C-alpha cells in the first residue's frame, strides 16, 4: 500500500483525462458558438458556467458516505488483506472529507440530504450479501467507477466551483481520490494476474 505518490497525469490518463477540456469549457448551449455567415458568437457566461455549491455538496457528501460504508464492509467481509487495508484507508480519508463537506455546507447554509442515492444503496445492499473472494471482486468492480466519478466531480469543482470554498474542497480532495484510484488499479491488475495463472 505504501509506495511513492503517483504523478496525477499517470492515473488520469488511465481514466480518460482527455475529457477535461469538455468539463472546463462545457456550455449549456453548444450551438451558440456558431452563427450563420461563419461568424462565431462566443458567450462568456456560458463558457464559465460554474458548479453550484447546492449541486456539488450533496453529491460529494453521498460519495464520501458510500466510501465509508463500503470501506467498513471491506474490513468485515473481504478475503484479501489488501482489500481490507484499502477499505480502512477509505474509511479514514473519506470520513475526513465528509467532515469538510459538512462544515462548508453549514457555513453556506445548505442542508445536506442524509444517506446514499438509490444506486449507491443498491451496491451496498449487494455487497452486504457477499463475502470472501466473491466480495473482493464485486467490491473492486464497484470502487473503480465510483472513484472515477468522484475524480470527475471534484476536478470540475476545483475548476468551476462557484466560490472559493467549493474550489478548495475540489482541489484538496484530488490528491486523495487519485491515491485511492491508483491503489484500486493496482489491486485490480494484481487480481487479474492471479486469476490468469
State the gist of this model.
By secondary structure, the chain is mostly helical. It is built from eight helices and no strands.
Question: How would you describe what is shown here?
Answer:
This protein is mostly helical and 197 residues long. It has a single domain, classed as Up-down Bundle (Ferritin). It has helices at 8-14, 20-25, 44-47, 53-77, 81-108, 118-127, 132-160, 164-196. The chain is globular.
Number of helices: 8
Count structural domains: 1
* Proportion of residues in extended strands: under 5%
Which regions have little confidence, pLDDT < 50, spanning 5+ residues? 1-47
Provide the fold topology.
Layout: H1 8-14, H2 20-25, H3 44-47, H4 53-77, H5 81-108, H6 118-127, H7 132-160, H8 164-196
Highlighted features:
197 residues, single chain, 8 helices, Ferritin
Amino acid at each position: 500500500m505504501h509506495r511513492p505518490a503517483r504523478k496525477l497525469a499517470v492515473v488520469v490518463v488511465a481514466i480518460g483525462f482527455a475529457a477535461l477540456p469538455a468539463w472546463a469549457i462545457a456550455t449549456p448551449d453548444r450551438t451558440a458558438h456558431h452563427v450563420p455567415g461563419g461568424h462565431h458568437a462566443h458567450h462568456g457566461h456560458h463558457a464559465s458556467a460554474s458548479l453550484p455549491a447546492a449541486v456539488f455538496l450533496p453529491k460529494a457528501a453521498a460519495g464520501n458516505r458510500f466510501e465509508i460504508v463500503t470501506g467498513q464492509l471491506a474490513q468485515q467481509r473481504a478475503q484479501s488483506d489488501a482489500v481490507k487495508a484499502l477499505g480502512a484507508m477509505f474509511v479514514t480519508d473519506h470520513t475526513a472529507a465528509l467532515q469538510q463537506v459538512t462544515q462548508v455546507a453549514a457555513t453556506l447554509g445548505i442542508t445536506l440530504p442524509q444517506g446514499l442515492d438509490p444506486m449507491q444503496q443498491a451496491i451496498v445492499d449487494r455487497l452486504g450479501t457477499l463475502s470472501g473472494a466473491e466480495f473482493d471482486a464485486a467490491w473492486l468492480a464497484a470502487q473503480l467507477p465510483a472513484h472515477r466519478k468522484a475524480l470527475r466531480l471534484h476536478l470540475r469543482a476545483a475548476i468551476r466551483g462557484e466560490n472559493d470554498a467549493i474550489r478548495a474542497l475540489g482541489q484538496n480532495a484530488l490528491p486523495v481520490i487519485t491515491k485511492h484510484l491508483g491503489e484500486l488499479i493496482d489491486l485490480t491488475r494484481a487480481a487479474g494476474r492471479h486469476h490468469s495463472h
